[in-house]
Amino acid sequence: MRRYLLVLLCLVSFCGCQDKKGIKERSVYPAIGLATWYNPRLTASGERYQPGEFSCAMRRRGFGKNYLVCNMDNNRCVEVRHNDFGPSFFLFMMGRIIDLSENAFSEISSTRRGVVRVRVGEIHSGQIDY
Questions:
Q1: Which residue, among 46, 24, 49, has the nearest Cα to 103 in the 3D structure?
Q2: Residue numbers of the domain that contains 62
Q3: What domain count does the chain have?
């Protein structure tokens, strides 16, 4: 029973945000949250995982888009390409918004740290949307 209440509480806190007109709008993907690194064998887009590549897994659809991920502790940033789906629903509800390839994560933090607080922005023709 406690687990269901926790999930419900997380859903309420992540889904309610105000737009400019004051009407509630559902936010599917926050721009600030937690990031970690991972090493998949095969990605959801069907590509084979390349260890040296700067790639990421996100709960958003639309593989192939580029994102700028910045560590909020040290302001180090890395550009990654979205080619996988993740993190899991439970981890997303707990604040994890993106999983980075090990190489991309090591650009913004030490892999020993494991989880860092990041800001994620989508890159549109050279401009970044936060």
A1: 49
A2: 29-129
A3: 1
